[in-house]
Design a protein that fits this description.
This protein is mainly alpha-helical. The protein has a three-stranded antiparallel β-sheet, with no helix packed on it. Helix 1 runs antiparallel to helix 3.
């Protein structure tokens, strides 16, 4: 029984981390998710009471939907999608941070990263794939484009593309 509880807890952490990254959520938004917020048929997730008290819907990828369904079959959450030990409240941010740091160490990741880094990665990877920054702004729930710009970091391949574009532009001068 102890082993089953441990494996369900590890699964919960894994699914929580993937959910934060896949949806670009803040930690509090992820913790506030309820089972009823997941709409698999419409492939969307309802985010309630985000920063500034705003609600929004975000797209649910097929891979996250598949993982959430497998998680639900195993953990059978009711109410909170990611319940804590008492099941009357969601997981604690402290336990999530400990699990995240342990996972980083096990993976050999030395770079500084926090759970919030998953949100930044979400935005950066969308930008890298050519998604318009205004769409990223909407997905992140930002009211200001300047807030979104902070989240979207230029990756090395993007910098190289920019260097090549500048070389081509200046060669013609």
């Amino acid at each position: 029984t102890q082993r089953l509880v441990l494996s369900t807890q590890v699964l919960s952490y894994r699914v929580f981390f993937f959910t934060l990254y896949s949806l670009g959520l803040r930690i509090g938004e992820g913790l506030a998710l309820e089972v009823a917020d997941i709409d698999g048929s419409q492939r969307r997730v309802h985010i309630r009471d985000g920063k500034g008290g705003k609600d929004r819907d975000v797209m649910l990828s097929p891979s996250l939907l598949e993982l959430l369904r497998a998680y639900w079959r195993e953990a059978r959450p009711q109410g909170w999608l990611f319940p804590g030990q008492s099941r009357v409240a969601p997981m604690s941010p402290r336990s999530l941070n400990r699990a995240f740091n342990a996972a980083k160490a096990m993976a050999g990741i030395k770079k500084p990263a926090t759970l919030h880094s998953l949100r930044h990665s979400f935005a950066t990877h969308l930008l890298q794939r050519g998604v318009d920054i205004r769409i990223i702004q909407m997905l992140l729930g930002h009211s200001s484009i300047q807030s979104t710009e902070i989240y979207t970091h230029l990756t090395e391949p993007m910098r190289e593309d920019l260097r090549q574009l500048l070389r081509q532009t200046t060669d013609g001068l």
